[in-house]
Amino acid sequence: MIDDDILTAARNLIEKCTQQGEMIATAESCTGGLITGALTAVDGSSSVVDCGFVTYSNEAKHSLVGVSQDVLAEHGAVSQQVAKAMCEGALQRAPNATIAVSVTGIAGPGGGSALKPVGLVHFGCAGKGRPTRLYHEVFSGDRHAVRKATILHAFAMINDMLSD
């Protein structure tokens, strides 16, 4: 059900978070909960995963993680500004999380445009007492490939924050 390389990355992240006493929250749009699902597929994840917000719609982004309607209207759901608001909102709303990651993008096959092509994903990673990190990437391939690459990159962002 979950690719072996995703499970391996999830296991490594769970181990590192356990060793460092960190807890994760997610705010996911284009992955629809797959980041949280991959993490919770690993034994011992309950000591590391606090909660996951699946914020597929703009209304969910606003009501669940506090993305402002103005930011959504001005920049669109797939934007750096929304990714930042999503991870910071998830960190604020998660009861025990010390790190939150967010993803918002266009997994395809439709929905892209010249300015926001299929495969574009914006990431945010916020941590208690740490500066928020933002990144974006345009991944290639079909919907599965884009979502898989997104999950792996989200794990890498959390790992990078843990390494600082």
Automatic annotation (TrEMBL):
Domain CinA C-terminal: 10-162
A Pfam family hit: CinA
Bilayer-spanning residue ranges: none
Record's protein name: Damage-inducible protein CinA
Organism, as annotated: Thalassospira lohafexi
